[in-house]
Amino acid sequence: MIPLIQNFKTVILANGAFPTHKIPLSFLRNADRIICCDGAIFNLLDFGLTPDYIVGDLDSISETLKKCFAPILYHNPEQETNDLTKSIRFCTTRGWKEITILGATGKREDHTLGNLSLLTDYAEIATIQLLTDYGVFTPQSSSASYESFAGQQISIFSITPSTLFTFKNLMYPLENQPLTSWWQGTLNEALSTQFEININKGKIFVFRTYSA
């Protein structure tokens, strides 16, 4: 069963909206290592923490900060991927494959959608969770059961239109049917302490709200 929140100590802070909820903030405070995506350094410093590494094309950092953090800068000028993808790869090449992503939503909606759609790609090389101020996104590529609670709000998003879904223990069940648009799997609700999402194949991600 996939826990609601997993205790992953490698944290990547993206340059979206900085978290305010106690759960994502606790991950920042208790991380073994914090990797900043380029311009996210400003929010982290304002919060009173310093990063262990700064990764990206470094186009959002002042020359003063570049000099200050020169020993932990990892410049990747490649433009085919975003800074979050570069940070994920930076971690996995060093063997850090259990990763919590923060600050990947909010601000520009196109960045949010891009980051969410890439979750399933990241799941091919690491175990990933993406925390927001409202809940947690988890990528999934095979049938799985999830830790939950009665009344928990659940949304399921399919990246691959050919994926067939069967929902168990959700208010709105599904039996061997596709989700052809992102809205179709939203606004469901858990009925008890666990639910199942069975799929034939493909790439999906699941959103669960926090318990408090």
Molecular structure report:
The chain has 5 helices and 14 strands. It is an alpha/beta fold. The longest helix is centred in the middle third of the chain and has 14 residues.
In summary, what is this structure?
With 212 residues, the protein is of the alpha/beta class. It has helices at residues 22-30, 41-47, 63-68, 83-92, 109-122; strands spanning 10-13, 33-37, 53-56, 73-75, 98-102, 127-131, 135-140, 144-147, 153-158, 164-168, 174-178, 188-189, 194-199, 204-209. 22% of the residues lie in helices and 31% in strands.
Multimer state: single chain
Mean pLDDT: 92
What does the main sheet amount to? 10 strands, mixed
Gyration radius over CA: 18 Å
Helix content: 10-25%
> DSSP helix count?
5
Which labels suit this protein?
four-stranded antiparallel beta sheet; alpha/beta; ten-stranded mixed beta sheet
Helices, strands, pairings?
Elements (H helix, E strand, L loop, with lengths): L9 E4 L8 H9 L2 E5 L3 H7 L5 E4 L6 H6 L4 E3 L7 H10 L5 E5 L6 H14 L4 E5 L3 E6 L3 E4 L5 E6 L5 E5 L5 E5 L9 E2 L4 E6 L4 E6 L3
Parallel strand pairs: 1-2, 1-5, 2-3, 3-4, 5-6
Antiparallel strand pairs: 6-7, 7-14, 8-13, 9-12, 9-14, 10-11, 10-13
